[in-house]
């Protein structure tokens, strides 16, 4: 099987190579999957660059998500031929991942692909789309409805942001998309964003409370932007904290929580329980318009992945990158 393998000599830098590897080098697991598609996420970019301390042992096969067909299974829940999706569980970090023609994982980590979502579409969504849906579900659980007002999406032209923008727009929300790249405005409007907020408007700290602007927010950026957004939330509004593309440090005050009842909701896609995963994938199959999904993707070969990872860390990619292993 063909695989992208990372290596790191003692004290040296991480290097990558595409190699033919024996199937018996796959890690232990209940289910062996013929991988059809994987993707490049921000976390993959960190792994490819050897950043973030995410990988503990080398050689390593990255790829935090994949979709494909079961080849063999020792678990009664899966049989050869079943279409499956994997995201999370630190696959691609501490366990070999999806940048290979085959993967072997625990049955508990898989979900069956929902009807109406083929492997390519499943990975066009991938970890980013799944996480965007978890964020939207959390906002809805806390009372967000389209009539409450504008919903902000930060890091909007990235993977999570693109899918969140498209789904929220399709659900009838007025989406305000934050981007640091004016050249992405047309793309974001094509996904349904009704207004564009320049990143610079939110990239510096403000007062503990500002005018009420947003009914909800899907935040892929964190840091100063998240603090600023919290101070602009409407009474009872919620922010789903998804990412840290702009920084992990959060310096804010409790004032928006105390005076406006603002909710800050943490989103963890990695260990989301099975029932929630199935619900989220069913909703993705239903709520993500396929013509919009097509606009978010760029197809890539395994050979192109290392360069795409470098580009992603420099904020030079947009939307979703789907890796074809079929
Ligand atoms: P992408 O790189 O595709 O998107 C991130 C976007 O954030 C960029 O496109 C850019 O959007 C914006 N951005 C980048 N750098 C900065 C900066 N310095 N300041 C402000 N905005 C910036 O990444 P993903 O969409 O894959 O992931 C987004 C975040 O979500 C990451 O931090 C990732 O680790 C996290 N994540 C968390 C998950 C969870 O389970 N909680 C699961 C999946 C992802 P623009 O150019 O439009 O401004």
TrEMBL record:
Transmembrane segments: none annotated. It is an enzyme of class 1 (oxidoreductase). SMART domains: PKS_ER. Its EC number is 1.-.-.-. Residues 12-323 form the Enoyl reductase (ER) domain. Keywords: Oxidoreductase. GO terms for molecular function: oxidoreductase activity. NCBIfam families: oxido_YhdH (TIGR02823). This is MDR family oxidoreductase. It comes from Tropicimonas omnivorans. The lineage of its organism: Bacteria, Pseudomonadati, Pseudomonadota, Alphaproteobacteria, Rhodobacterales.
């Amino acid at each position: 099987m063909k695989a992208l393998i990372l290596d790191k000599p003692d004290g040296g830098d991480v290097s990558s190579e595409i190699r033919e590897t024996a199937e018996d080098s796959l890690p232990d697991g209940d289910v062996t999957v013929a991988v059809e598609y994987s993707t490049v996420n921000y976390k993959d970019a960190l792994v490819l660059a050897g950043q973030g301390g995410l990988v503990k042992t080398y050689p390593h096969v990255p790829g935090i998500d994949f979709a494909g067909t079961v080849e063999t299974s020792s678990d009664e829940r899966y049989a050869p031929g079943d279409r499956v999706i994997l995201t999370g569980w630190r696959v691609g970090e501490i366990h070999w991942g999806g940048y290979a023609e085959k993967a072997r994982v625990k049955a508990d980590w898989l979900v069956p692909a929902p009807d109406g979502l083929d492997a390519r579409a499943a990975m066009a969504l991938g970890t980013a789309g799944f996480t965007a849906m978890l964020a939207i579900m959390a906002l809805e659980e806390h009372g967000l409805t389209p009539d409450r007002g504008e919903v902000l999406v930060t890091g909007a032209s990235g993977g999570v942001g693109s899918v969140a923008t498209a789904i929220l727009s399709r659900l009838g929300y007025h989406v305000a998309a934050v981007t640091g790249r004016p050249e992405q405005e047309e793309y974001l409007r094509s996904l349904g964003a009704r207004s564009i907020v320049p990143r610079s408007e939110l990239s510096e700290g403000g007062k503990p409370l500002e005018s009420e602007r947003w009914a909800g927010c899907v935040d892929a950026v964190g840091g100063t932007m998240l603090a600023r957004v919290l101070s602009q939330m409407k009474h009872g509004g919620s922010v789903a904290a998804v990412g840290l593309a702009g920084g992990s440090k959060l310096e804010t005050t409790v004032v928006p929580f105390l005076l406006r009842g603002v909710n800050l909701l943490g989103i963890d896609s990695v260990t989301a329980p099975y029932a929630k995963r199935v619900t989220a994938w069913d909703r993705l199959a239903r709520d993500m318009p396929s013509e919009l999904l097509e606009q978010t993707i760029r197809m890539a070969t395994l050979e192109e992945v290392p360069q795409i990872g470098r580009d992603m860390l420099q904020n030079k990619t947009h939307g979703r990158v789907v890796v074809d292993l079929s």
